[in-house]
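> @MW can you paste both from yesterday?
MW: sure, first one:
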Amino acid sequence: MSGRALIVWGGWDGHQPGQVAEIFRKALVEDGFSVEVSNTLDAFLDVEKLLSLSLIVPIWTMGKITEEQFQPVSKAVQSGVGLAGCHGGMCDAFREHTEWQFMTGGQWVAHPGNDGVKYQVKITDQSHPITRGIEDFEVSSEQSYLHVDPAVKVLATTSMPVADGPHVANGPVRMPVLWTKLWGKGRVFYNSLGHQADIVQSEPCLTLMRRGFQWAAKT
């Protein structure tokens, strides 16, 4: 058994959070986790329960989180519980809650060209257990522009701009796609891919998520 995981899903329906939660639940069970799935942020209220987990997986684009809901998550991750998620479900959650952004390592701000942009993802750290053996790949989806914590350890990037927009005037930038960071004793993993369920369950995205779950949970 790899430990206990809690998936909490909800928020904006456009990211298909219920479907993504089921994809992640199935993957985690296949990898040996016992999994609880909840569609309410009140699942975060029981701090003792959160402290007993191996992994927390948020899938909650936008919305609002109260301090009573946030603080147990932060305390659990600081104690060593892993935190892992993707796309808007983790780094476009609770836009007004800057400490959530501090914990997760970044915040989505734009996706120039919207959905269906074809772009390359370049693996920049091929020695990490999350990315080892995975080659650079192309994806057709949203290309996320994020404001990123300089403390994160970047595992993969994409080159921007691809789509036109006012950002083009700044010239090319390498935008993080995958990263890890620490929050106290806890490991945090983020993957900006995953606009909808079809991208989440595509490869190598799903393999990256499975490895990220295992890494964050220290399995």
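MW: second:
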Amino acid sequence: MERYSPDQMELDARDVVARAIAREVSEGRGTENGGVYLDISHRDRSFLEERLPRMVERFDELGVDMAEQPVEVAPTAHYGMGGVVVDEHGETDVRNLYAIGETMAGVHGANRLGGNSLAETVAFGKVTGAAVADRLADGPGADADTVDRLAGQSLADTMAVANSDGTHDPVALFAELRAVLWDHAGLLREESSLQTGLERVASIRDRAADVAVGGPTSESFEFAMNLGFALDVAEAILRGARKRTESRGAHARTDATETDPSWRRNIVVERDSVGGMALSTRPVDDPSSEVQQALDAGYELDYHQLE
């Protein structure tokens, strides 16, 4: 880590450390298992026990003393900053449908700080609760007949999948899709790999139309339900990463390593007129005066304390 972050070393932001590990592995300096050794023995034991108590306890259970021995670690994806587009009250484009928590987009910008994952739920739970209360006070919500009709249609489509006598195993397809995202939209991305990932997703989508599924309580049924959503998310991630020809936050392109000021925009994915995906961009709002004042003051967080 001296090459990547000489001041913070192993305790820099998690996405910085993860990318450093990924680069070491990709350039042939990793372990046989595809990781690296994390040596934090230069820190006092009391420091580790105070700052990283869960890691110290976990490795101790495995017979490894972090204060004395290097530990083998591997990188992982930091966090997904995308999600469902909502307004300032958490409402989607569908009236009376709200998306709150880690499914919503736009709260953390290009990179979420460690320990900050509940902001969407804690902050917007209160905001949305107040908005819903005001909406209900104004009168009834969605028409009951419309809700019943849409719910019935959705349930019918869901049950049609049960007991399907197809060819492919949805559990295996889901595992393959997970591998595609890691291989082609992981920590380090580039144009040709992203395109290959899209082609592999298309192949999985074709096979997902012919799956062998058990009854509604089976594991295969659960995975078949999730597979359709996961394919859409995977395609959106790959298309968005290919479109963003820069590196920003947790999105790192090896073929576009600099941050481009003109790309201070969000990518929005919508269904087009023929059922595919249409990508557009929207500018990012300016920070509030209070936030801008803090930014101008140049405050910095002791990041590892947020872990």
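> thanks! The radius of gyration is 23 Å.
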